[in-house]
Design brief:
The complex is a heterodimer of chains A (about 280) and B (about 325). With about 280 residues, chain A is of the alpha/beta class. Chain A contains 13 helices and eleven strands. Chain A has a five-stranded parallel sheet with strand order 3-2-1-4-5, with helices on both faces. In chain A, strand 4, helix 5 and strand 5 form a beta-alpha-beta unit. Chain A is globular. The N and C termini of chain A lie far apart (about 90 Å). With about 325 residues, chain B is an all-alpha fold. Chain B has 15 helices and no strands. In chain B, helix 2 packs across helix 3, helix 6 runs antiparallel to helix 7 and helix 6 packs across helix 12. The chains are: A alpha/beta (about 280), B mainly alpha (about 325). Chains A and B meet through helix 10 and helix 11 of A and helix 3 of B.
């Protein structure tokens, strides 16, 4: 028979045992192998916590943090070189090479995978996820507070939503179910891709774009080097369309990843919409 | 013969008109053609018709005529029914020239650099084939040389594209190897036109010489045919035509094989009469293929070379089978 005192002692011991569950130490050597996780990690990590970022974060056409990236060791997303950096945590994207991620896991390295952010709310979740993975919840909360404050300030004037089209090399467009689409919607544009039934985007024939006659066309800037895929951005039909419709050149580093830098893109979009509504845009 | 040419011309005209009214935008045929002729104030329909569909249809004619004519001329000169710009590597080296000019930035500096570079590439291949194989070369030598040149050109094109800092360059290999007329502009028509016209004139001038060559080199010389000149005209003419159209549409194969083969019987196997017929037949074939890629799988961006290869490769195998006994 267990008496009340013994029961009490057992219960008390139980509570102590549970409360004293081992705390997982924050990782001390973090390696990032994906452009988006590079930037999130650089924003959130503690001093000397982040050891290496991927080579993509040095590319000024894709990365919004080129200068900061220069201060880290650069990796190329290969399992061997990452393993030799002796990480205790690797952060990767959902579309990072599965062979490399699998290899790292087999070698006993903890890999945290981040899905791409498809909305600005997803961006908040990724920042929190990075904070949790790196044991830097406080810093992540700081970043989020700044993000929320800035987002609240960015809103356009009310009015009819102008119709916008995103047009990339090879005639590619992005629909509502993407980060770019979400930014357009939040800034107060109607995406032509949605009208044409392209939820995720995809190849949009130039003919259909011309027939849709959007109020504004947003294209990516020409990349370094040359390619035939970018020819379509110089097509006379598109140029003609842009004469009647205001154009906007996107800055890919802000659009490419689900990071707080997406608010720079939102800022540019809101300003563009305001210009369009007041008839000032050229 | 006259009836054949008239019939083929009518076919080309028909396909040209159908090509003009085919496309993802739903524009009625009458409305579209009216907009094309009348032009407009920059509104959507005339813009689509004049800047997107017209160049595509014109290029279809030019590409088909060039490949058909060059194929017929090469077959006449090499006296080999298997000689064809795509198969013997001329299209591949033309594509290599074009890619090099784009990737080194020359094409951006001088607009004519693109067709000239493709022409130079095509010239290199044609010279090599003619030196190795003809006019008395055996089928085997021609085909083997063609395989080697095609493979080398393809590998070098991939290599050059892989070196590019541009993220889109690597995936462009599909365009260069399979060809496409999508999203071309009137600029591309003007770029290719002078070379196509020049090459066409050169090749059509070889008609009498090719006929004489069927009797043998000595007999042809005795008939007053200048063999050196004939060879030069075939080489430069083919390089001009194939180079120009590959520069703007990528490498499209098998047109120069299928069309002369189909028409040879109808012109009484005379190489001279086959030349204009192949030009028209080639134009019809490429226009038809281009209509097909827009009608069959519009969302999938099917490449033109896929359709021509689907038709041409089985025919090629059939031809090899038929002539295998005469191959050494």
């Amino acid at each position: 028979m267990v008496g009340p005192k013994t029961l009490g002692a057992l219960l008390f011991g139980g509570v102590l045992w549970l409360g004293a569950a081992p705390v997982v130490a924050a990782p001390e050597r973090v390696v990032s192998m994906n452009l988006c996780t590079d930037q999130l990690a650089m924003l959130v990590a503690g001093p000397d916590q982040l050891v290496s970022v991927s080579d993509l974060s040095l590319d000024p056409d894709s990365s919004a943090m080129v200068e900061q990236a220069g201060g880290y060791t650069i990796n190329h997303g290969r399992a061997e070189e990452i393993y030799l950096l002796d990480p205790d945590m690797v952060v990767a994207g959902a579309y990072s090479d599965p062979a490399s991620v699998g290899m790292l896991r087999r070698l006993g390295v903890a890999v945290e995978v981040f899905e791409p952010a498809l909305t600005l709310d997803d961006v908040r979740e990724r920042v929190s996820q990075m904070g949790a993975a790196l044991g830097r919840e406080a810093r992540a909360a700081e970043v989020l507070a700044g993000f929320d404050a800035r987002r609240a300030r960015l809103h356009s004037e009310s009015g009819d939503n102008p119709r916008a089209a995103l047009y990339y090399p090879n005639g590619y467009t992005l629909g509502d179910a993407t980060l770019a689409g979400d930014l357009l919607a939040e800034a107060g544009f109607d995406n032509v891709a949605a009208e044409l039934g392209l939820a995720f985007g995809g190849a949009l024939p130039l003919e259909l774009l011309v027939m849709a006659a959007p109020d504004t066309i947003m294209t990516s800037p020409m990349r370094s080097g040359a390619s035939r895929s970018e020819d379509i951005l110089g097509h006379p039909a598109l140029a003609s369309l842009r004469n009647g419709a205001a154009g906007l050149t996107l800055t890919p580093p802000d659009w490419m990843c689900g990071t707080p830098f997406a608010l720079n893109a939102l800022d540019a979009l809101v300003a563009h919409r305001d210009k369009l509504l007041t008839g000032d845009a050229e | 013969m006259k009836r054949l040419l008239v019939g083929l011309s009518a076919l080309v005209l028909l396909f040209f008109l159908v090509s003009l009214v085919t496309g993802p935008a739903r524009i009625g045929p009458v409305e579209g053609l009216q907009a094309l002729l009348r032009g407009g104030d920059g509104s959507a329909v005339p813009l689509v018709m004049r800047e997107i569909r017209l160049p595509r249809a014109l290029l279809g004619v030019m590409v088909g005529a060039s490949l058909g004519l060059a194929g017929a001329a090469m077959q006449g000169y090499l006296r080999n029914p298997l000689a064809e710009p795509g198969l013997i590597g001329v299209s591949g080296t033309a594509a290599l020239g074009a890619v090099l000019s784009i990737q080194t930035g020359f094409a951006a500096q001088y607009v004519l650099a693109l067709p000239f570079a493709a022409l130079a590439g095509a010239l290199a291949a044609v010279l090599l084939i003619v030196v190795l194989a003809g006019p008395r070369g055996s089928s085997l030598t021609v085909i083997l040389a063609g395989i080697a040149i095609s493979a080398l050109a393809g590998a070098l094109t991939s290599l050059v594209l892989n070196f590019s800092p541009n993220p889109y360059a690597t995936s462009e290999i599909v365009f260069w190897m399979m060809g496409s007329l999508a999203d071309r502009a009137m600029l591309h028509v003007w770029l290719a036109l002078p070379f196509v016209v020049l090459g066409g004139a050169l090749l059509l001038s070889t008609a009498r010489g090719l006929d004489a060559l069927t009797l043998g080199e000595d007999a042809a010389q005795a008939m007053g045919v200048r063999l050196g000149r004939l060879r030069l005209a075939v080489i430069v003419g083919s390089a001009c035509m194939v180079g120009a159209v590959t520069a703007v549409a990528g490498a499209i194969g098998f047109v120069g094989l299928v069309v002369p083969h189909l028409l040879r019987g109808l012109v009484g196997a005379s190489p001279a009469r086959l030349l204009p017929a192949s030009a028209l037949g080639g134009a019809a074939m490429v226009l038809a293929a281009d209509i097909l890629v827009r009608v069959v799988m519009p969302e999938r961006d099917l490449k033109l070379g896929v359709v021509t290869a689907l038709v041409g490769a089985p025919l090629f195998l059939h031809l090899i089978y038929k002539t295998r006994r005469s191959l050494p």
